[in-house]
Backbone:
C-alpha cells in the first residue's frame, strides 16, 4: 500500500487497521508504510471509508479547534482525505497480495483466500481417503506474518517425511522441488500475512509430523497454526483423533465439519 | 475461511459461534455453481444470520453492501458463508439445505460434538472433520487471550491486534458502544465469518473488567 503524502493529514486511523502494524508517522506528521513489512493485504484501503475532505480543510479545522483547546478526532473507520493509494503490483511483490488479500484470486488455483482445499470438498474429491491424515500448517497467522524464507525452512523439514504435498495448493506451486520443499529463490524475501503448507501422510505416521514440527518451530521467528483432518469412519468418528492422542498432543474442541452434501459423492474403491 | 477451525475461546463462548459455508471443487462442482451458491445464501439469509458474505464482494456489515445485489452477483466458485449463534437455527438451515439438494459441499465450523449431534438429528453422518492443533512457533509474539479470541473470529486474520486494542480502549472510555466497536472489527473480515454478536459480548465483558 502507498499513502499519498499530499493528501495525508496524519490522523493515524490506518496505523491501527494495518494487519501487520507497519504504518507510522514520519517527521512531517504524515503516515508512511514500511514497504519491506507491508503484506499488501489492502485492509486499510478496504475498511477505511474515504470521506473525501480536502487536506487544507482538515488542517484549518484542526487549527481552529486547537485554538479552543479542542482536538480533531476523526471517526475510527475513515480516511478523511482518501490518501490510501493501492499500487500496481508486479512479480514477485504481487505474491504478497495473493497470499494476504482474501479478495485476490490465486492464478494457479483460481480461488481467492489462502487457496487450500483441506476437507472442504472432500465429499466429492476424495482427496483424503481411508487412513490418510490431512495436515495444514499455516505460517504467519495469527497476526505476525511470514517471509517465504521461513516458509521454505518449514517446507524443507516437512519434505523429509516424504509427504504428498497438495498439488492444487499455492505454496506447493511455488516449490521448485516438492521432493525437497525448496522454494523459488526470487520469492524468499517476500512477506505474506500467512501461507499454508498442505499435505497428507498416513495416519500411523502422525507422530513423525509432530517430531518434525517440534524441531523446526524453534528455527523460525513467526507463529504457526496447525490443523489435522481425516475422512470419517462409517459411524461418524474421526480416526485421526486416536493417532494424535497416541502421539501425546491435544485436539481443539472446535473445528471444521464437511457434512457430506456434495454430489456426486466420491466413492472409494 | 481456511482456518475458522482456529477460533479461540472458552467452550461456553464457542457454543454460540457456528460458521456455515459452501465450497466447490474445480472440474466437479465448480462449473455452473453460481445458481446453487445463490440458493445457499438465500436459505441462510432466511434464518437471519449474524453475518453473511462472500470473499470477493464483502459482508453485510461493511459499508454500502446490499445483500440481495451481492447474492445476484455471485459467480461460479464463490466462497459463501454465514454465521449463526445457536444450534436450533443451524439445524433448520441444514435441514433446508438437505431438502434443497444443491449438490455443493457444505462445511460447518464450530464445536465438533455439537455439530455432529446437529447432523445426526438431521439424519446425516458427517463426511470429514478437521481439528486445530493450536499455535506453534514464536508464541511469545502473540498477544493476550482476549485479543486472540477476537482476531481469530476472522478466518484470514484480517482484524489487526492494534485495531482490537483500540476498540477495547474506545469501549472502556465509552467512545464507542460494544456493538459499534464489534461492527467496525467485522468490517475487516472480507468473507463474513466474523461473529459480531460474540465480539460484542466479549467487548462488553472487557468494558466491565470481566475476564
Residues:
Amino acid at each position: 500500500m502507498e499513502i499519498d503524502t499530499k493528501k495525508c493529514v496524519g490522523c493515524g486511523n490506518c496505523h491501527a487497521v494495518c494487519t501487520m502494524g507497519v504504518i507510522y508517522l514520519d517527521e512531517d506528521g504524515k503516515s508512511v508504510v514500511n514497504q519491506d513489512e507491508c503484506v499488501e493485504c489492502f485492509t486499510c484501503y478496504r475498511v477505511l471509508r474515504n470521506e473525501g475532505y480536502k487536506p487544507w480543510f482538515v488542517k484549518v479545522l484542526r487549527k481552529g479547534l486547537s485554538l479552543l483547546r479542542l482536538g480533531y478526532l476523526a471517526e475510527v473507520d475513515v480516511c478523511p482525505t482518501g490518501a490510501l493509494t493501492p499500487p500496481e503490483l508486479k512479480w514477485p511483490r504481487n505474491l504478497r497480495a495473493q497470499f494476504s488479500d482474501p479478495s485476490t484470486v490465486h492464478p494457479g488455483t483460481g480461488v481467492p483466500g489462502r487457496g487450500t482445499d483441506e476437507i472442504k470438498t472432500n465429499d466429492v474429491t476424495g482427496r483424503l481417503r481411508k487412513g490418510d491424515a490431512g495436515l495444514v500448517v499455516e505460517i504467519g497467522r495469527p497476526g505476525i506474518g511470514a517471509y517465504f524464507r521461513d516458509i521454505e525452512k518449514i517446507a524443507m523439514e516437512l519434505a523429509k517425511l516424504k509427504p504428498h504435498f497438495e498439488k492444487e495448493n499455492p505454496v506447493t506451486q511455488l516449490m521448485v522441488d516438492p521432493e525437497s520443499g525448496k522454494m523459488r529463490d526470487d520469492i524468499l524475501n517476500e512477506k505474506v500475512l500467512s501461507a499454508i503448507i498442505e499435505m497428507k501422510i498416513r495416519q500411523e505416521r502422525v507422530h513423525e509430523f509432530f517430531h518434525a514440527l517440534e524441531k523446526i518451530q524453534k528455527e523460525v521467528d513467526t507463529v504457526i497454526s496447525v490443523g489435522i483432518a481425516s475422512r470419517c469412519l462409517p459411524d461418524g468418528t474421526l480416526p485421526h483423533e486416536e493417532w494424535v492422542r497416541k502421539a501425546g498432543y491435544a485436539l481443539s474442541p472446535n473445528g471444521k465439519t464437511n457434512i457430506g452434501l456434495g454430489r456426486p459423492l466420491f466413492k472409494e474403491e | 475461511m481456511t482456518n475458522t477451525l482456529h477460533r479461540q475461546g472458552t467452550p461456553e463462548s464457542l457454543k454460540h459461534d457456528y460458521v456455515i459455508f459452501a465450497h466447490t471443487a474445480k472440474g466437479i462442482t465448480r462449473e455452473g455453481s453460481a445458481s446453487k451458491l445463490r440458493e445457499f445464501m438465500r436459505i441462510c439469509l432466511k434464518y437471519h444470520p449474524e453475518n453473511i458474505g462472500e470473499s470477493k464482494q464483502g459482508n453485510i456489515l461493511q459499508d454500502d453492501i446490499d445483500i440481495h445485489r451481492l447474492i445476484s452477483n455471485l459467480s461460479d466458485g464463490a466462497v459463501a458463508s454465514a454465521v449463526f449463534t445457536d444450534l436450533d437455527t443451524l439445524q433448520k438451515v441444514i435441514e433446508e439445505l438437505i431438502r434443497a439438494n444443491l449438490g455443493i459441499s457444505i462445511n460447518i465450523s464450530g464445536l465438533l460434538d455439537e455439530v455432529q449431534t446437529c447432523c445426526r438429528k438431521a439424519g446425516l453422518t458427517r463426511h470429514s472433520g478437521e481439528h486445530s492443533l493450536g499455535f506453534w512457533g514464536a508464541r511469545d509474539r502473540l498477544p493476550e487471550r482476549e485479543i486472540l479470541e477476537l482476531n481469530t473470529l476472522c478466518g484470514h486474520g484480517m482484524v489487526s491486534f492494534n485495531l482490537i486494542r483500540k476498540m477495547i480502549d474506545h469501549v472502556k472510555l465509552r467512545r464507542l458502544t460494544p456493538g459499534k466497536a464489534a461492527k467496525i472489527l467485522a468490517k475487516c473480515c472480507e468473507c463474513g465469518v466474523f461473529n459480531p454478536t460474540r465480539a460484542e459480548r466479549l467487548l462488553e465483558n472487557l468494558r466491565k473488567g470481566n475476564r
